[in-house]
Amino acid sequence: MSRRIDLIRQLIKSDKFGTEKENEQKFLMATAELILTDLINIAINGFESRGAGSLVINMLTDSTTYMSGHDVEVDLLSAESAEDEDVVKFLRGLLQEIDENDWQKNVLITLISDAGTRTFAVEAGGSQESLNALAAEFKG
Fold first, then answer.
1. Taking the model in full, what pTM does it have?
2. CA 47 to chain centre
3. 10-61: per-residue pLDDT in tens?
C-alpha cells in the first residue's frame, strides 16, 4: 500500500465518540476540503497553461501530473504500439472525458489506485457533492 493511501486512511480514521468524534469529523472534512481546493487549483493552472486535460493522481506510484489532451494522445499511441489493452482503455476513456467536459464549470481529476481508475468532473468552486464523491473513493 502506498504512503499516500496510508495517510488518507489515517486522515479519515477516528477512534473518538460522541461530540469529540463530531468535532474531529468536522475538522477532517475541513482538511479534505482544503486538499480538494489545492487539487482544483493545480488542475485550473494546468488547464490555463497546457489546455484541456486532467490532473492525474496515481496512488500506486505516488505521483501527480497534469496531462493535457495532447499528452494523453501521445501516451495512447505508445500504449497501442505496446498492445497494452488496459492502458489503451483507460486513455481512450480519459480522452472522452476531456472531450465531453464542460470547461466553463469543471476541471477533471483522475484517481488511479489499486481499486481502479476514476475521473471526476469537479466544480472549479469545489462543491460539496464533488468532495463527497472523491471522499467515497478514498474510503473504499
1. 0.71
2. 15
3. 555 667 777 887 777 677 777 777 777 788 888 889 999 999 999 999 988 9
Q: Which residues pair with 63 in a beta bridge?
A: 58
Query: 15: which DSSP letter?
Result: -
Q: Contacts for 90-95 with beta carbons within 8 Å, 24 or more apart?
A: 90/117, 93/119, 94/54, 94/67, 94/119, 95/69
> From CA 117, how far away is CA 64, in angstroms rounded?
14
Say if strands 53-58 and 106-113 run parallel, antiparallel, or are unpaired: parallel
Classify burial at 41, counting beta carbons within 10 Å of its beta carbon; exposed 0-12, middle 13-18, buried 19 or more: middle
Q: How many residues does the chain have?
A: 140
